[in-house]
Amino acid sequence: MLKLQGENIFLRALEPEDLDFLYELENNGDVWEISGTTAPYSKFILRQYLENAHKDIFEAKQLRLCICKHDHKVIGLIDLFDFDPKHRRAGLGLIVLEKAERNKGVGGEAIELVCHYAFSVLDLRQLFANVLEDNLPSVHLFGKKGFQKIGVKKDWIYSQGRFKNEILFQKLNN
Length: 174
Prior knowledge:
Blueprint: E1 9-13, H1 19-26, H2 32-35, H3 43-51, H4 57-60, E2 63-69, E3 74-84, E4 89-96, H5 106-120, E5 126-132, H6 136-144, E6 148-159, E7 162-172
Parallel strand pairs: 4-5
Antiparallel strand pairs: 1-2, 2-3, 3-4, 5-7, 6-7
Domain N-acetyltransferase: 9-174
Keywords: Transferase
InterPro entries: Acyl_CoA_acyltransferase, GNAT_dom
């Protein structure tokens, strides 16, 4: 049995009880820049999303997991998206909602757990991540976790009246 459990956190599937956390996250304007969100989400829409969150990654082409502390408090989400089984790749996205929970190793632990799952269970060849160039903590984190900077998408994200570059990171399963 595969355990998505680390020393300080564990990962689990979304549950209906996660509605309030999702509502807080998806309606937090501070994270819209990285999520591409442009309008608030209603609890009704998020409840519908949760009702379909059980779909298999091969059907949905994505997998969203809650990052939980050992007291079961949800502190963030980690996603596999753009899942492509033919080419054996997926994107990886990560958010730790509360600033007080950041820079404590939980993001790195979550990345390690998802990489292990993606490479050993899903048999993926590669994972990629898109990180804004000015998001220095994430740039550092993905580099530290073995992702290589393979390119820069110039003026990729328009935010707060200006364009920002986005770095493309890739990790190969060697």
